[in-house]
Automatic annotation (TrEMBL):
Identification of the protein by name: L-threonine aldolase
Tagged with keyword Hydrolase: no
InterPro entries noted in UniProt: ArAA_b-elim_lyase/Thr_aldolase, Low_specificity_L-TA_bact, PyrdxlP-dep_Trfase, PyrdxlP-dep_Trfase_major, PyrdxlP-dep_Trfase_small
Reaction catalyzed: L-allo-threonine = acetaldehyde + glycine; L-threonine = acetaldehyde + glycine
Any one Gene Ontology molecular-function term assigned to this protein's record: L-allo-threonine aldolase activity
Function according to Swiss-Prot or TrEMBL: Catalyzes the cleavage of L-allo-threonine and L-threonine to glycine and acetaldehyde.
Gene3D superfamilies named in the record: Aspartate Aminotransferase, domain 1, Type I PLP-dependent aspartate aminotransferase-like (Major domain)
Aromatic amino acid beta-eliminating lyase/threonine aldolase domain location: 3-292
BP GO terms, sorted: L-threonine catabolic process
EC number per UniProt: 4.1.2.48
Source species: Litoreibacter ascidiaceicola
Entries under SUPFAM superfamilies matching the protein: PLP-dependent transferases
Listed Pfam families: Beta_elim_lyase (PF01212)
Record's keyword terms, sorted: Lyase, Pyridoxal phosphate
Length: 350
């Protein structure tokens, strides 16, 4: 009963088979393998972007930080939501890879950047004043850190404001597949057609061992990204094992199938949580992650029976009044069986 993270789940068999198949003979290193040629073509076709520059790295943090750094000067600031992944969960990596650039945080309900708030923050950020940081790119997390989604209209509103001030936009898509499946849209509609300039297209949380694609719809910065990736120690020598994962992930839209399955698993869990009288769900989940408030007694039963998930705060005690509500997060991946979801719900109900 592991609901801690979709990172805890297994590889999809097709991805594992692709790695094994790639482990034969010799391939050129550093992204010059023949598999990567096919991956590049597949991603360009998937995103309807024939001129896009496409690269692979092994972690979401590297994808986000290196992509943002490519469009950020050290004296710039990156505009992000207050609970964006780049702010809460990357240990300052965006600032580090951008050589000391800072993050400027923007408010918004449901972990989604409010367009008016973004505009006001941009206006209040220095332009030519040497004493102030300068305006840098805007980044959004899709799906968000609380499991909500930006609609296509909301993405377009954010990017329109960014473009009004000459700023580039980045989409952190660690859970890109979950978002795309939930919205029922194409990859192009959720990215460049909505004004996004660069994307971190996640595979690790959705059935891969460790691979993320970085996609620039305008290849202007492609060479700089290659230099940053190498200098940042994220250029794999035996790159074919990244390529093999991504090729399998893209084949027959496996990425979308797995994202939809993870979402369906979460929907089953949410339906069960809603049937518990004491449970509260502050933000309506739209993808594969749900935050809930549950009585301490429910957490005690589930965790003592072996269920794994996160409590907030992390040091929340299982000792104390049974009816105190404690916040928690449940995440479902593509492989979660119904029986495991139902087992957790039974424990929470008592």
């Amino acid at each position: 009963m592991n609901f801690a993270s979709d990172n805890a789940g297994p590889m999809h068999p097709s991805v594992l088979d692709a790695i094994v198949k790639a482990n034969t003979g010799y391939e050129m290193p550093y992204g010059n393998d023949t598999i990567m040629d096919r991956v590049r073509d597949k991603i360009r076709a998937t995103f309807e972007a024939p001129e896009a520059a496409v690269y692979l790295v092994a972690t979401g943090t590297a994808a986000n930080a290196l992509a943002l750094a490519t469009y950020t000067n050290p004296w710039d600031t990156i505009f992000a939501h207050r609970v964006a992944h780049v702010e809460e969960d990357e240990c300052g990596a965006p600032e580090f890879y951008a050589n000391g650039a800072k993050l400027t945080l923007v408010e918004g309900a449901g972990a989604k950047m409010d367009p008016d708030a973004l505009r006001q923050v941009i206006i209040g950020t220095g332009q030519k004043d040497v004493h102030s940081v300068q305006r840098g790119p805007v980044t959004i997390t899709q799906a968000t850190e609380v499991g909500t989604l930006y609609s296509l209209k909301e993405i377009a509103q954010i990017t329109a404001i960014a473009k009004e001030y000459g700023l580039k936009t980045h989409l952190d898509g660690a859970r890109f597949a979950n978002a795309c499946a939930a919205l029922g849209c194409t990859t192009a509609e959720m990215t460049w057609k909505a004004g996004i300039d660069m994307v971190s297209f996640g595979g690790t949380k959705n059935g891969c061992a460790g691979v993320e694609a970085v996609i620039f719809f305008d290849p202007e910065k492609a060479w700089e990204f290659e230099l940053r990736r190498k200098r940042g120690a994220h250029l794999f020598s035996k790159h074919r094992y990244l390529s093999a994962q991504m090729e399998a992930y893209l084949t027959n839209d496996l990425w979308l199938e797995l994202g939809a399955k993870a979402n369906a698993n979460c929907a089953r869990l949410v339906k069960g949580l809603e049937s518990i009288d004491e449970a509260e769900i502050p933000d309506a989940p739209a993808a594969n992650m749900v935050f809930a408030l549950l009585p301490r007694a429910a957490h005690r039963r589930a965790i003592q029976a072996g269920a794994k998930y996160y409590l907030f705060p992390a040091d929340a005690s299982l000792d104390g009044p049974d009816d105190d509500l404690i916040r928690c997060r449940f995440v479902c991946d593509w492989s979660k069986p119904d029986t495991e979801i139902d087992q957790l719900l039974a424990l929470l109900r008592g």
